[in-house]
Write a structure and sequence with these properties.
- By secondary structure, this protein is of the alpha/beta class.
- The protein contains 21 helices and ten strands.
- The protein has a domain of 300 residues: Up-down Bundle (ABC transporter transmembrane region fold), CATH 1.20.1560.10.
- The chain is elongated.
- The chain starts with a helix and ends with a helix.
């Protein structure tokens, strides 16, 4: 079988993951060899039974042979259990290691990489592709080794019995090798298509189910079903093509081997008649030929599985080899008592090389100052928040926190000192208390309740049958939009952050609740550096300073009254949002 360098690379990497468990693997191989040899010894004893017992009439030999068969069975079963257990342990441990590395890597990938694929594709790789590798390591590799040892042992016995007859038998081997070579390349392509179709199928399902509200609101259930059905049919066709190819391969190999057995029976019979071979040797030889069918059939199936598994391994290693990870400095400076001073120093940023999102942004936020960032959609407001959280690093320029370049700070430690209220608050499946204290393990029930009171949701939580231990459902589906938003606000407040970042923090609230939460948020922001990214301009009138962003640059800067009096871009935005009366008064 022709295998190129690329074919061996995934196997070599898998072996690298097995290296820490070499001791167990060596013990498993010893058990495999012992069990395999014990399994192929009985046909050799059949020769003795025929020639020494049935023909020569040696009853003492019969007793010894009967005991030997039992002992060989005990050895085979005992050592078979040993290699099965040891290889299962190694395989499952390797798969656990790979799955943990893959999940950790996925968590650390940059948003650019994550957004290039559907989340369902990542889930398919972590589950389906890893499961394929698990099958290869737990079954295919074991079968390959055991059957290879069995095949080698059978060939050794055949050569010992009659080497001329053995050579005649192996005339058909090149035909079998050619068939395996042709089929394996086809199976690899089919296996890649199967896994790719499955990943896309998972992606479509995950996308539709995670957006089930939108799907039902726009009555597109039939459209989504048709998309899923089309991809499901493509996956079905790929599976059938794989099954057909495997079936043809195994059937062809079996026909070739049976034909070889018929040829050997004819040639061996001639040797027995001429006296060159005993009856027992011919029967033993034919028995070994019959036993050879199983290892060759299993090896052909294993080769097929391994070829298909290469596609899964390639997809897994593609993620593990992805170099573009999220910015992180785990061994950087650990911020102590942060004052919360923020400075953007000539910050330029582009998601790709073609379009600048921010252009030479320069501004400073004093400790405890409340600064609002406003502008039209696409102006770069949320990008400023992403850079401040270090989801990305500036393409040019730098961001300073208390005078220290953000890239020099320990990223995780820094983020623990920042409270975030996103525009779309994603809650984890679990209790309300768990969600409020999420990422802040030292939070007490008292601090959780205090944060909830500040966010204006304590009364609602207390009214629930299980109070703070009530579940919120996956992504918080059992809560209203406003309730989810207030839980997110409480989650940001509970850690007593030095910097508070709010991206459309009250956008999901009605006017009455918004007024209540806004008053509470004003109290929560006292003494903290606060960045408020806002689309609803009525919520940021009391800000110490407002930065008006357009095309990635600061167009205007000042307090609400100052900007209204200047009748510039902010004045126009405010007027368009229903502030016409205020605008007229100005």
């Amino acid at each position: 079988m022709k295998l190129g360098r690329d074919d061996f690379r995934p196997y070599a990497r898998l072996l690298g993951h097995c290296r820490p468990y070499c001791g167990r693997i060596a013990a498993a191989l010893l058990c495999m060899v012992t069990s395999a040899l014990a399994g192929i010894a009985p046909p050799w004893l059949i020769r003795r039974v025929v020639d020494d017992v049935l023909i020569a009439g040696d009853s003492a030999a019969l007793n010894l042979l009967a005991v030997a068969v039992v002992l060989l069975s005990v050895v085979k079963v005992s050592f078979g259990y040993g290699y099965a257990y040891l290889m299962a342990w190694v395989a499952q441990k390797v798969i656990m290691d790979i799955r943990l590395r893959l999940y950790d890597r996925t968590q650390r990938l940059s948003f650019k990489v994550l957004y290039r694929r559907r989340m369902g594709e990542f889930m398919s790789i972590i589950t389906n592709d890893v499961a394929t590798l698990q099958g290869i390591l737990t079954t295919s590799v074991v079968d390959l080794v055991v059957q290879s040892v069995t095949f080698t042992g059978i060939v050794g016995f055949l050569l010992f019995i009659n080497w001329r007859l053995t050579l005649a038998t192996f005339v058909v081997i090149p035909i079998v090798v050619y068939a395996l070579d042709r089929a394996s390349s086809k199976l690899r392509a089919v296996g890649g298509a199967i896994q790719e179709q499955l990943a896309q199928l998972s992606g479509i399902a995950q996308e539709a189910l995670s957006s089930v509200r939108i799907v039902r609101a726009f009555a597109t259930e039939k459209l989504e079903f048709d998309r899923f059905e089309t991809k499901n049919r493509s996956h079905f066709k790929a599976l059938i093509r794989g099954a057909q190819t495997k079936g043809v391969l195994e059937g062809f190999v079996e026909i070739v081997l049976i034909s070889a057995m018929s040829l050997i029976l004819w040639l061996g019979g001639r040797d027995v008649v001429s006296g060159g071979l005993t009856t027992g040797e011919l029967i033993s030889f034919l028995t070994y030929i019959g036993l050879m069918v199983q290892p060759v059939r299993v090896i052909s199936r294993v080769v097929s599985s391994i070829q298909q598994g290469v596609a899964s391994a390639d997809r897994i290693f593609e993620i593990l080899d992805e170099e573009e990870t999220a910015p992180e400095t785990p061994s950087g400076i650990v911020p102590g008592d942060m004052r919360g001073e923020i400075a953007f120093d000539d910050v330029w940023f582009a998601y790709d090389d073609e379009r600048w999102v921010l252009r030479g942004l320069c501004f400073r936020v004093a400790p405890g100052e409340r600064v609002a960032i406003v502008g039209a959609t696409g102006a770069g407001k949320s990008t400023i928040g992403d850079l401040l959280l270090r989801f990305y690093d500036p393409t040019r320029g730098r961001i300073l926190i208390d005078g220290v370049d953000l890239r020099c700070l320990d990223t995780a430690a820094y983020r623990r000192r920042v409270g975030v209220v996103p525009q779309d608050p994603a809650l984890m499946k679990g209790s309300i208390s768990y969600n409020i204290s999420y990422g802040f393990g030292s939070a007490t029930l008292s601090s959780v309740r205090s944060a909830a009171e500040t966010a204006g949701i304590d009364d609602f939580i207390s009214s629930l049958p299980e109070g703070y231990e009530s579940g919120v459902g996956e992504r918080g589906v059992t809560l209203s939009g406003g309730q989810r938003q207030r839980v997110a606000i409480a989650r940001a407040i509970v850690r007593d952050p030095a910097i508070l970042l709010m991206d459309e923090a009250t956008s999901s609230l009605d006017s009455m609740v918004e007024s209540q939460v806004q008053s509470a948020m004003n109290d929560a922001m006292l003494g903290r550096t606060s960045i408020v990214i806002a689309h609803r301009l009525s919520t940021i009138r009391d800000s110490d300073r407002i930065l008006v962003i357009s095309d990635g640059k600061i167009m205007e800067e000042g307090r609400h009254d100052e900007l209204m009096n200047s009748r510039g871009y902010y004045f126009s935005l405010y007027s368009l949002q229903g502030g016409a009366e205020d605008a007229a008064d100005s």
